[in-house]
Amino acid sequence: MYDYSEEVKLLKALTHPARLAILEILRGGEECVCHLEAALGYRQAYISQQLMVLRDADLLQDRREGWNVYYRVTRPEIYSVLDAVRKITGMPEAKLMLTPIACACPNCKQGTTHRMSIPVELQSVR
After folding, report:
1. Is residue 116 in a domain?
2. Based on the structure, what is the number of domains in the chain?
3. Which residues are CB-contacts of 117 (< 8 A; sequence separation ≥ 6)?
4. CA 33 – CA 11 distance, rounded (Å)
């Protein structure tokens, strides 16, 4: 019998609203943990737990730059899966709102403020 362990691991990683919200934010590209905190309104420890699950499922990769840790999606085909789930469930396509967020990372302090916030349909995960 075929072992479905990798598929199960991936699908389990997608079964939490905060992890789905993180993936939606990262749909726009690499972001630092402080941006995820600002956009989601969660504490850093909680976000780190969710990031670890996504990283263990081989969906994310991180890199350090000084004190900051940046995350990016390593398997962009996951967005086809998420889009298919939305289509099946009849949910609208998630779009990141272009609103300023309060973030204290060096990029923001240098005037390159990233503009993003959690999509309206995912705000109930807070």
Report:
1. yes
2. 1
3. 39, 96, 97, 99, 101
4. 23
- One-letter amino acid of 48: S
Tens-place pLDDT, residues 15-36: 999 999 999 999 989 999 988 8
DSSP 77-92: THHHHHHHHHHHHTPP
Contact in structure between 48 and 22 (CB atoms under 8 Å): no
Least confident of 38-42, 92-96, 106-110: 106-110
- For residue 67, what pLDDT is reported? 85
Confidence (pTM): 0.79
Phi, psi for 59 (deg, rounded to 5): -95, -25
Residue at 77 is within a domain? yes
Determine the structural domain holding residue 109 and report its residue range.
Answer: 5-120
